[in-house]
Write a structure and sequence with these properties.
Length: 745
């Protein structure tokens, strides 16, 4: 490629040069103030108010969000004209022309809203996650967003924490693989060798590094008690998977980890993430996370906070202003080494180069005036107003349906094509925004196809649609109907950031109405919209069928009605354990052995609690379909596996023994029997999804490798032990067939 005119003195603009050479050439030109500018992220940049600062190179990026807990509020949307105007100042009026980077939380879709991440995880489908992220990136980048703060990879064991809705569940392998798929979807599947990404992509951000899923009592922002071994063997794993998938950025968690706030955690940020893992991307602080070091009582003031965070490895300060105010002086007085600031700036410039911002700074991909002559004068359009097209809606419907998990069914589902008079009742019957879920900043209530419309389309006069009040009046309608479908559960404002609960029951009043409906003795199907696992013990007893629908997104209604009538078969599986009660928390499928073990069969006789069973209400991986599956015996290709380079094929024949087509998610769990540290009794290692017609048999085959049994030992060294190991294959974490094999030296 020849050098375009005007770029000779600005080698960083030359796409024919390697990215690293471009980074260094720009860094060499920058003043300390310009370097600090790249580490400062402002909130909602304003091209008028911030003009001078942008000109001076004082802002590197901007987060487009309404505030500190933006996921709870739908804001006015992205102002594309403001983004472009600010960008024009940065590119055409600042000394070095470094483009700004615009970030926004595009968490589970942009304008097209898909199920909340916990719902997407329930589909156990990497390809689906990839496609939803890809579409979200295309839509968001059309609105000027170049960077999203997803995937959220916190391993969660406590459903009281509202942020479990944003997570990909409790298993590192599930969250890691789905997170990596999300990264590839956002950033493009085939980045060039030097990591540069094409148009229509956004940079991803693995968050919140690390341990945030362990906040005490499920209370958001609480302190975290966890040792490094558990971090390495559990919580760090999905982050490593995302980094290996090329994730461009990582966000520090608000919490401390055993007394050290993550925004000042040099060991985990610099030594583990950056040095040990070789992460060459950007670490961004969370909203005011640098400033909050003062509240956390480890920093004297903002200046001290800035010094600690930069030294620890936080490259960008999100909105606290600590870096902008103090970093230059901290370098000049020798408190912060210039090399560390240079390291941070290198990472930011690398991110911008890889994102193609120097070539495509403006919305719609227009090139800067310096390269092509004056940029188009036409004002940039405001946030896309396009109605959702059929492909977007089709994907949203596919994703919503794939996320549904059938918890119980005594034959009430699927509904027959003529179910008689059907009552659709409950608070979610005619909802819009409530079905989008937390963090759907750019979704619109009017885009949501509601359950009410979908059932009316389907049954016409046979549909009775209640008014959503879910009260005594409902009973009168139940009496007129042949079957009742009750849509209950949590409004999204009861989940997400800063929205934890102390109780896991349905919201006030819902159980009472359900009880009254059930007492009338007519068929009752309960659909639960939720952002978290709930205690559904009584509901499972009184309903004929229970379906978890999470918060499903814009195609909620049609996806639900098609599923209830059996046009689609529910194929989702729980990505988090459903505990029996709040008293059972924490509960997960990766419990480790104690010195006095009890197995499931012992639970009723000498369980861990006197007053309750300890086993989960519904185990991790649970989910029914409209058919049944039977598993044949487990086959192992060998009973010995060499530690180095060995592998064993583990296979099982699975037969659709029912009368309808269905999807089975065949799950592989492993256990290292004797290890240097306590290892999970069972840990998800892999899964295979089978789509089988009635009567059809297929073989699920897994390749088990020593890698899947590797873990960090007492010295934090990754190792694999010779000796006995277990595999279990089954439909969920609580049932399956096990076999033993030996790892040999
Ligand atoms: C705070 C949240 O913790 C984080 O997840 C989010 O990305 C940022 N705010 C930016 O909105």
């Amino acid at each position: 490629m020849t050098t375009p005119p005007g770029k000779a003195g600005r080698p960083w603009l030359r796409t024919d040069l390697p990215v690293e050479q471009r980074v260094e050439s720009l860094l060499a030109e920058m003043t300390l103030a310009e370097k600090v500018g790249q580490t400062h992220q402002s909130a909602n940049i304003d091209p008028v108010q911030d003009r001078e600062l942008i000109r001076l190179g004082g802002i590197g990026s901007s987060v487009l969000a309404s505030g500190a807990t933006a996921g709870n509020e739908r804001d006015a949307g992205v102002r594309v004209s403001a983004i472009d105007a600010a960008q024009r100042i940065a590119v055409e009026e600042s000394r070095l022309g470094i483009p700004l980077l615009f970030a926004r939380d595009v968490i589970h879709g942009h304008r097209t809203v898909f199920p909340i991440p916990l719902g997407l995880a329930a589909a156990w489908d990497e390809d689906l996650v990839f496609r939803t992220a890809q579409l979200a990136a295309a839509e968001a980048s059309r609105d000027g967003v170049a960077w999203t703060f997803a995937p959220m990879l916190d391993i969660c064991e406590d459903p009281r924490w509202g942020r479990v809705a944003e997570s990909l569940g409790e298993a590192p392998v599930l969250a890691g693989r789905l997170g990596a798929a999300m990264v590839r979807g956002f950033q493009g599947d085939t980045p060039a060798g030097d990591g540069t990404r094409g148009a229509g992509t956004v940079a991803a951000c693995a968050k919140h590094f690390v341990g945030y899923g362990l906040v005490g009592g499920g209370r958001d922002y609480e302190t975290v008690q966890v040792g490094e071994n558990t971090l390495r063997n559990l919580h760090l794993r999905p982050f490593q998977a995302a980094v290996q998938a090329g994730c461009a950025t990582v966000m520090a968690a608000f919490t401390d980890v055993d007394g050290v706030p993550m925004h000042a955690h040099r060991h985990l940020l610099r030594e583990v993430l950056k040095d040990e893992w070789g992460f060459d991307g950007v670490v961004v602080g969370d909203w005011d996370g640098v400033g909050q070091l003062v509240n956390q009582g480890v920093a004297l003031d903002l200046r001290d906070a800035a010094a600690q965070a930069l030294v620890a490895g936080v490259d960008i300060d999100m909105v606290s202003g600590a870096y902008a105010a103090h970093l230059a002086e901290l370098v000049e007085t020798g408190r912060v080494p210039l090399e560390l600031v240079d390291d941070a700036v290198r990472r930011v410039i690398r991110l911008k180069l890889r994102q193609g911002l120097f070539e495509r700074p403006y919305v719609g991909g227009t090139a800067p005036a310096s390269a092509t002559g004056p940029a188009a004068e036409a004002p940039a359009p405001e946030q896309s107003d396009r109605a959702l097209g059929p492909p977007a809606r089709a994907l949203a419907r596919e994703a919503a349906a794939a996320s549904f998990v059938l918890l119980s069914n005594n034959g009430a589902l699927p509904l027959t094509s003529n179910p008689g008079r059907l009552l659709l009742t409950g608070p979610f019957v005619d909802e819009g925004a409530a079905l989008l879920g937390t963090w759907s900043l750019d979704g619109r209530a009017e885009d949501v196809a509601s359950p009410a419309d979908a059932i009316r389309d389907r049954l016409r006069d046979n549909a009775i649609v209640d008014d959503g009040r879910f009260s005594d009046r409902t009973l009168h309608l139940v009496r007129q109907a042949d079957i009742t479908i009750a849509l209950v559960g949590e409004h999204p404002s009861r989940s997400g950031e800063a929205n934890s609960v102390a109780n896991l029951g349905l919201p006030a009043g819902q159980v009472e109405v359900l009880r009254a409906i059930a007492s009338l003795g007519k068929p009752l199907v309960v659909v639960v919209f939720t952002g978290r696992p709930l205690d559904l013990g009584e509901i499972l007893d009184l309903a004929d069928a229970v379906l978890i629908a999470w918060h499903p997104g814009v195609e909620a209604g049609p996806a639900l009605i098609e599923t209830l009538f059996g046009d689609r078969s529910p194929g989702g599986r729980l990505p988090m354990t459903f505990p029996r009660s709040v008293g059972h928390i924490p509960s997960s499928a990766h419990a480790r052995p104690t010195g006095r073990p009890i197995d499931a069969a012992d639970d009723t006789v000498r369980g861990r609690y006197l007053d309750a069973l300890v086993s989960p209400r519904l185990p991790f991986g649970w989910g029914l379909s409209y058919t049944t599956f039977t598993y044949g015996p487990l086959r192992l290709s060998a009973d010995q596996m060499p530690l180095s380079g060995g592998s064993i094929e583990v296979s099982v024949d699975v037969t659709n023994s029912g009368t309808r087509h269905g999807r089975e998610v065949v799950q592989l769990y492993v256990r290292d029997v004797v290890a240097d540290v306590t290892r999970p009794l069972l840990e998800l290692a892999d899964w295979v999804s089978l789509e089988l017609d009635a009567g059809e048999t297929a073989t699920a085959t897994f390749t088990v490798t020593p890698d899947q049994l590797s873990y960090y030992d007492r010295t934090m060294t990754l190792r694999i032990d010779p000796g006995d190991a277990l595999v279990m294959v089954g439909p969920n974490a609580s049932s399956g067939t096990s076999a033993r094999f030996t790892l040999t030296e």
